[in-house]
Amino acid sequence: MRIEDLNVSAMIANNKLSEAISSLGFYEFRAMLTYKEVFFGTKVEIVDRWYPSSKTCSCCGHVQPMPLSERVYACQKCGHTQDRDENAAVNLKNCPNNRVRAVSSALDGFPGLKRLRSPEACRRHTRRASAELTPVDRCLSRLPW
Ligand SMILES: [Zn+2]
Question: Helices 26-40 and 15-24, interaxial angle, to 10°?
Fold first, then answer.
């Protein structure tokens, strides 16, 4: 699973976007994806924030300006048209690996991580999830996002 490394601080500084961005809870969303990665053994990857996922044609690779008001990508080179977000999603999926990093690398070095990645440990953790903070909760709360 790939997500964009959005510059949320800058987006919140934009008066037109700030309320929408804040209410979406991007930071919490990313934290929860990472949390579930540990639970289910999925892999969450972050794509470089400068990768032009919205401006690039997912069909031919042409890059063109895409104002936020445009909801459909209409390629000026090959004529391909696609919903803006779907086009960006395809580009994120096909993004070169040198512009992608694993979220889990941020978890390296946290004690108990390998143990908690096992399916049995996840089942035990899920059973007591509503109880008190676990070691993973404490580790996640110290991460830099
Ligand atoms: Zn194109």
Answer: 30
pLDDT tens digits for range 60-87:
999 999 998 999 999 999 999 999 999 9
Distance (angstroms) between ligand 1 centre and the Cα of 8 equals 29
Q: Is residue 17 part of a domain?
A: yes
Residue 73, in any domain of the structure: no
The number of distinct structural domains making up the chain is: 1
Residue positions counted in the chain: 145
Centre of ligand 1 to C-alpha 2, Å, is 22
Mean pLDDT score of the chain, rounded to an integer?
76
Q: What is the pTM of this model?
A: 0.64
Nearest CA to 80 among 95, 64, 99? 64
Domain boundaries, position 6: 2-51+95-141
Residue 13 lies inside a defined structural domain of this protein:
yes
Domain membership flag for residue 109:
yes
CA of 25 to the centre of ligand 1 (A): 33
